Amino acid sequence: MGSTSTSTFDDQGPSKDNSSFSADCLELLNLVLDEEASEGQRKFFFEHLKGCMPCHEQFNIDMAIKKMIKERCGKNVPEGLMETIRAKVLQSADQHE
Amino acid sequence: MSDKSRKGYTKKEKDTIFESEFLPHIDSMYNFAYRLTFDEDDSKDLVQDTYLKAYRFIESFEQGTNAKAWLFRILKNSFINDFRKKSKEPSKVDYQEVETFYNSDEIDKTITTDLRVETVQEMIGDEISNALNSLDVDFRTVIILCDLEGFKYDEMAKILDIPIGTVRSRLHRARNLLKERLSSYAKKMGYKN
Ligand SMILES: [Zn+2]
């Protein structure tokens, strides 16, 4: 596991200047975006957003894209495939009985 | 689960698990297969294969655990082991090369994209989907698993057999690439950035 595998900050958030767009910001942004941040991290992040324009913009863009992917990139299974699979599986089950 | 020293599921139990826990994920499975192969028949084969395997190895599925993640893992492995070899499309990026790239300082670099929220929201056609499809398979995969299917980092790590740190860095890189693509679409389409 690389050095990026664990959070580089605890619930206090990055100890850096509160208004600069840093690697720590980015890491936190992704955690919040993916709902992987702790409650403390979330609070810190949204507090930070108030004073950090770049993070604010980036976060909005990332949220918009994530939402679009969810809405636009789905696909339904072709008609009949479920029935075909069900039949094949039951058939294979009978053979193995 | 707890009251049973399991010697195995009965036929009836197997069928119930299959019907109520496996089959409901078929849309997600098909979509994943399609975004890996870009071919309808291949996707059907891949999904069918996955379900046959899932049933055959149902004993290794623990009831109460995440069936969807378990199925995705089987599908991903089938894709790599059975399908990717046969595929005419060669893997464009060498895996090692990709990993090296993730681990470089590049990851910390801020991509200052000129994309705007309004621009993204105005993309009403297939731009997002096309941009996603244009990404290399490893990048495409993490975005699908995370953003489309809503898997958590630890579930993705299990599905892909990679450390969580790699999940996170790959996801980050994938998002940057996606934004670059979207940004160039936006320019082509004449959006004011
Ligand atoms: Zn910031």
Description:
The complex is a heterodimer of chains A (97) and B (193). Chain A has 97 residues and is mostly helical. Chain A has helices spanning 23-33, 39-51, 53-72, 81-96. Chain A has 4 helices and no strands. In chain A, α1 packs parallel to α3. The longest helix of chain A is centred in the middle third of the chain and has 20 residues, at 53-72. With 193 residues, chain B is mainly α. Chain B is 66% helix and 0% strand. In chain B, 37% of the residues are buried. Classes of the chains: A mainly alpha (97), B mainly alpha (193). Chains A and B meet through α1, α3 and α4 of A and α1, α2, α3, α6 and α7 of B. Zinc ion binds at residues 21, 25, 48, 52, 54-55 of chain A.
Taking all residues together, what is the mean pLDDT of chain B? 84
Global outline of chain B: elongated
Briefly note the CATH topology name of the largest domain in chain B: Rna Polymerase Sigma Factor, Chain: A
Number of helices of chain A: 4
